[in-house]
Design brief:
It is built from eight helices and eleven strands. The protein is an alpha/beta fold and 290 residues long. It has a seven-stranded mixed beta sheet, with helices on both faces. It has a two-stranded parallel sheet with strand order 1-4. Helix 6 packs antiparallel against helix 8 (269-289).
Length: 290
């Protein structure tokens, strides 16, 4: 596995994927400190390949990104949690949707689209709308175009994540996915700093959810459970406690660390990053001891 810096590019639109580099990067856990924890940041990618051909502005296109979440949690490998992150932006293809979660209003010839609430709202595996609600395209896409994005970005990312989860279970007898995301302040009207999504208690043992809640609250953060985010595709896919796989989705309020108007870190950046480092260090220590 190669380092994060081997794959990370500067934000941009209309740049091609830098073949043969994959559309993701991986930071393995430090040797001798590994734990069953696997961290993922599927929505912090900021590269948009040339074939996207969107008509929306770059600002609108980037509004769906989980801005800088990968940087907030990149201390994980040093404490024992392997980390995988997306290079390609969420507006191009959404890694936290099922690969056949088509939006029939966007994909002209989609076969039997999965009528999920997210897809119907314009946020299928290939989104029709930007994060701010702006239409991304001035036309409908063909199924071939959408399937190519899934094949080139979604499939290899999930294959790599699957290898990491399988390797962790083989080594430790269990694997635990922490899927890191961010949410706009409006998602909870500013009432909650962190939302833990365990698919209403089905994707992990209750002890893990309680442990995470305790660690965040120890940093003075308010924590909600499953509302409005109970966990997406990755949490559902890997939330199989009876098989040795657990998964939790963590949503961080951007109000803690990000100025959405300026698209830059806010005055709270250092405080938020320090709090997360303490959470991650404690979580890894407990995972190593259990």
């Amino acid at each position: 596995m190669k380092s994060r810096r081997a794959f990370r590019g500067e934000a941009g639109y209309g740049r091609g994927m830098d073949a043969p580099q994959p559309p993701f990067w991986i930071m393995p856990a430090d040797a001798g400190r590994a734990t069953p924890l696997v961290f993922a940041s599927p929505h912090s990618g900021d590269v948009y390949p040339q074939d996207m051909a969107a008509t929306a502005s770059l600002r609108a296109i980037r509004s769906a990104e989980d801005a800088a979440v990968d940087q907030l949690v990149d201390c994980g490998p040093g404490h024992g949690a392997a980390l995988i992150g997306a290079r390609i932006g969420r507006a191009y293809v959404d890694l936290n949707r099922a690969p056949d979660e088509w939006d029939a209003a966007l994909i002209a010839d989609a076969p039997s689209p999965r009528s999920t609430a997210k897809a119907l709202a314009g946020y299928g595996v290939v989104a029709r709308l930007a994060g701010d609600g702006t239409p991304l395209y001035g036309r409908r896409l063909t199924l071939a175009e959408a399937q190519a994005r899934v094949a080139q970005v979604h499939a290899p990312y999930h294959a790599a994540l699957g290898e990491m989860m399988q390797a962790a279970r083989a080594r430790f007898g269990r694997a635990v996915l922490i899927d890191w995301h961010s949410m706009p302040v409006r998602a909870t009207n500013g009432a909650v700093d962190v939302v833990l999504g365990d698919r209403h208690g089905t994707s992990c043992e209750a002890l893990l959810t309680r442990r995470l809640r305790r660690l965040f609250e120890a940093q003075g953060l308010t924590v909600g459970l499953n509302r409005p985010y109970a966990g997406g595709y990755a949490t559902q896919l890997w939330g199989r406690p009876d098989e040795g796989f657990q998964a939790v989705q963590v949503e961080l309020s951007r109000g803690l660390y990000w100025d959405e108007a300026a698209r830059a870190p806010s005055a709270g950046w250092k405080r938020c990053r320090s709090a997360l480092r303490r959470v991650i260090e404690a979580l890894c220590e407990e995972a190593r001891a259990s």
